[in-house]
Amino acid sequence: MSRAQDAVERAINEIDSEAKRIRVEIDKQRKDLERRIKPLQDQLSDLEDALRRLAGRDGHKPSATKRSPRRRAPRGANKQAILAALKQQPGASAAEIAAATGVKATVVSSSLSALAKQGEVKRTKRNGRVTWKVAA
Predict the structure, then answer these.
(1) Long-range pairs for 74-78 at CB < 8 Å and ≥24 separation?
(2) Does residue 11 surpass a pLDDT of 60?
(3) What is the DSSP letter of 103?
(4) What are phi and psi of 106, to 5 degrees?
(5) How far apart, in whole angstroms, are the C-alpha atoms of residue 15 and residue 42?
(6) CATH of 77-134 among 1.10.730.10, 3.40.50.300, 1.10.10.10, 3.80.30.20
(7) At what angle do helices 105-117 and 94-101 cross, to 10 degrees?
(8) Residues 93, 132: contact at Cβ < 8 Å?
(9) Which of 30, 68, 96, 110 is exposed most, by the fewest CB atoms within 10 A?
């Protein structure tokens, strides 16, 4: 064999050795990734099962990004409902008006403050608590 052929043979052997070492390292990395991904796959499966169970409760898929739009009352409807309740129950508290009208307590409270500023209702106190009545 010539020197050139020996050099080529050594180069081929070195390349084969390096390729084998790389294959072993790749296999080791693949096994490590498979070991680390298994618990994540199990968690994903559990979460998907939970979502299916939740969807089965109310008959539709839960939406993570889309909320159903809340309907607003027509303009002036809350004011009319609040004033009608006060006419039936003069001296009612905001909570009592909310219960009587079905309007949220926070909406009733802010509406009563606005109506008081406009002079349509009057704020009073009864036994240390705030009550409301229609202005005369």
Answers:
(1) 78/103, 78/107, 78/108, 78/111
(2) yes
(3) -
(4) -65, -35
(5) 40
(6) 1.10.10.10
(7) 120
(8) yes
(9) 68
pLDDT at 28 over 70: yes
What's the pLDDT tens digit per position in 91-122?
999 999 999 999 999 999 999 999 999 999 99
- Mean pLDDT estimate for the chain: 88
DSSP string, 30-99: HHHHHHHHHHHHHHHHHHHHHHHHHHHHHTS---SS-PPPPPPPPTTHHHHHHHHHHHHSTTB-HHHHHH
pTM for the model: 0.49
